[in-house]
Amino acid sequence: MITTNKVLIQNPSNAKFTLLLLLFITTNFIAMAQTPNIVGEYYFRRQEMVAAFKFSVTGKFDFFHSYGAIDRNASGTFTIDGDTLKLKSDKEGGADFTVLEQSKTGNGYIISCNHPNKMLMAYIACTVFIGTEKQEFEANNDGEIHIELEHCDKIYVKNRLFPDVPTLIKDENNENNRFSLSMLPSLEQVSFKWIDFKIVDDHKITCFTNYFMQVSDIEFIKD
C-alpha cells in the first residue's frame, strides 16, 4: 500500500488516470441507478382490445396487439431517455404498399389494389394533398379509389384495418394519375413511428392516443 502511494506521487499521470477511472465508474453507477428498470412483460386490456410488450435485458422488445378479428405484432429495439421509452421497430414506417405500375391517362386519379383477401381491398383509403389542404377518399369493394380532381400534389395510402404510417405513392414531381398497388406483408406489423412511451414507474408505461390504438388513457401494466 505504501509502495502504491509512492508510485502515484512520483507519477502524476498515474494518479490522474486513477482519478478519471474512479469518476467514470461512479458516473456510470449513478446513471444505471437512475435508469428505470422496464425489463419484463406489460399488458393492456380493455374490452375487445388486448396488447402486450415483452422487454428483454438485451434491449429488444416484442409486441402483440389484438382487437376483434385483427391481430398485429412488432419486434425491434428500445432505448430510454430520462422517463421516455423510445421504440425502433424492425418494420419501416410508411412502406406498407408498393407501386406496381403507374401512368398518365385521361382525367382524375384512379388507385387500384389487388389482394387475395378481398376484404382487405375494401378498407384501402388515401389522403390527398393540394398544398396544405387535404381530402380523404375510400376504396370500393373492388379495391379501387376514384378521385375526381384535376390535380393534386401528394397521395398517401393506408389500410383502415391495419392503421400505421401512410405510404406516399405520389409526390409533387410525379405527374401520373393511374396507380396499381400491392399490399405488403408488413401491413400486419406496427412501426411505432412517432409513438413514444412515458415510463411512469417500474410497473407502468403510458402513451397518447395514436394511429393504431385510438383509445384514451393507454396504460401498460407490468405483470
Report on this structure:
The longest helix is centred in the first third of the chain and has 23 residues, at 12-34. The protein is 16% helix and 45% strand. The protein has 3 helices and 16 strands. It folds into 3 domains: 2-34; 40-91 and 190-222, Lipocalin (Beta Barrel), CATH 2.40.128; 112-186, no CATH class. The model is unreliable at 1-9 and 24-34 (pLDDT under 50).
User: H/E order of the elements?
Assistant: HHEEEEEEEHEEEEEEEEE
Strand content: 35-45%
Q: Estimate nothing, just give the exact number of structural domains.
A: 3
CATH class of the largest domain: Mainly Beta
In short:
The protein has 223 residues and is of the alpha+beta class. Strand 2 (49-55) and strand 3 form a beta hairpin.
For the structure shown, list the relevant keywords.
223 residues; 8-stranded antiparallel beta barrel; alpha+beta; 4-stranded mixed beta sheet; 3 domains; disordered N terminus; 16% helix; Lipocalin; 16 strands; elongated
Which SSEs are present, and which pair or pack?
Layout: H1 2-10, H2 12-34, E1 40-46, E2 49-55, E3 60-67, E4 70-81, E5 84-89, E6 97-103, E7 109-113, H3 118-121, E8 124-130, E9 133-138, E10 144-147, E11 154-159, E12 167-170, E13 178-183, E14 196-201, E15 204-207, E16 218-222
Parallel strand pairs: 7-13
Antiparallel strand pairs: 1-2, 1-16, 2-3, 3-4, 4-5, 5-14, 6-13, 7-10, 8-9, 8-11, 11-12, 14-15, 15-16
Helix pairs in contact: 1-2
